[in-house]
Amino acid sequence: MAESQYIADIGARAKSPKWLRIWTNHSIMQQNSNFITGRKSEIKRLKSYLGSRKSEFVAIYGRRRVGKTFLVRKTFDNQFSFQHTGLAKVGIKQQLSQFHMSLVKYGAAHKFEPKPARDWFQAFHELERLIESIPHKEKKVIFLDELPWLDTRNSNFISGLEYFWNSSASARDDVLLVVCGSAASWIIRNLLKNRGGLHNRITGRIRLNPFNLQETESFLQSKNVKYERRQILLIYMALGGIPYYLDFIEAEKSAQQNINDLCFASDAPFRSEYDNLYASLFNKHERHVSVVEALASKGKGLSRNEIVDKISLSDGGGLSRILKELEESSFIRKYKGFGKKRKEAMYQLIDMYSLFYIRFIRDADRDNLSFWLDAAQSPSFFSWAGYAFEIACLHHTYQIKAALGITGIQSSISSWQSSAAQIDLVIDRKDQVINLCEMKFSINPFSIDMKYAENLRNKLGNFRQETQTRKTLFLTFITSYGIAQNKYSHLVNNSLTMDVLFE
Hints:
Trna Endonuclease, Chain: A, domain 1; five-stranded parallel sheet; alpha/beta
């Protein structure tokens, strides 16, 4: 079902007798949480906050469409003492009016009649009164969704929230305040790194990341989409592990057909998603988009100085904030090259959908209804697919290390490049071994020919010479279907297939 269908009618359910049973009947909660694909650790953490002996203030953040609201509503089966969602692009008067209506809705079950509020201090005082009117002693779950939208200009919303938590909720032992919002930068700046009255008040934080491949596979299977793993990988490489995006996949169509219809048809839903995505997350989002598109121009990413050279933005605090906001929202990653210092860090675009949009959707011929089906046989497709597969591997380094049997060995992840060669994934291990990983996306077992074998030998030689490492070098291949056996395949120490990424 689409995101709009996830939202239940919570007003009527708040009056249900099940409301009084849910907190003590953990088997009911388990049944409800089973409807969520993946998210096991997040569900476990939310339940632990529910069972604690003190009030908890939990912040959940992540990129748009990743499933934050769905996670909270399903975990608690929509059984809230109070729930409210902020409105986009309205003033304080409308925000307070809707907050009052939510108080009326949830107060009805307890014969509580809230008073209209002129400001957020009064509004949160009415929320206090609602909590006090609830007779049961179990945790009272307060869910404030799209919290950043409530913080309108000159509204003093943060001060009102501080007042509510510091003067009332934290003094009790029965409040679980859960807040979330897609604007990760707002959550981080105003809650997680608050230097005022909410400093160190957050007792729990959950950064909700996109699905990994195993979760993507499970989600599609729950929709009766029966793809072999290469097609699932192709969907993941184009759309990423975003539940909302994956929910559009139709079981009776191939992966290529779904991508074509969702991204390139005249009314395709993901033609306009790109602009909406960044506009909904960041103030003055054009600057964030310019950084993303600069990074998309170079596969390995750019240094801070290279970013400054490519866009009209000064190398100051503004750029630092933009890069941090993009990183916290899972659009980019910051990484250090092998043997490099921290100040020499690189930034790389890792959001699958953004990369796919920039490479194909943005400039696609809108009159060609089979654009992607035609492009899927072109050199540009294989160039994109090779890079997107590398990014998919970078999203699954834990699975790669597990397949190599080295999760118990301390190691660090980096990349390496010189004027003569580049290695996108380097696993530097404490047992005196370095895995140099080559990642190849293909439709058959990958075959190493004479020219490529010479390239590999040179790459290993250059790495050892320039890094002066004395560790043993293991050449590791991660491919779609493994390595074809021939007279050059002996160069490879470890051969992993795409299946390991699904573990």
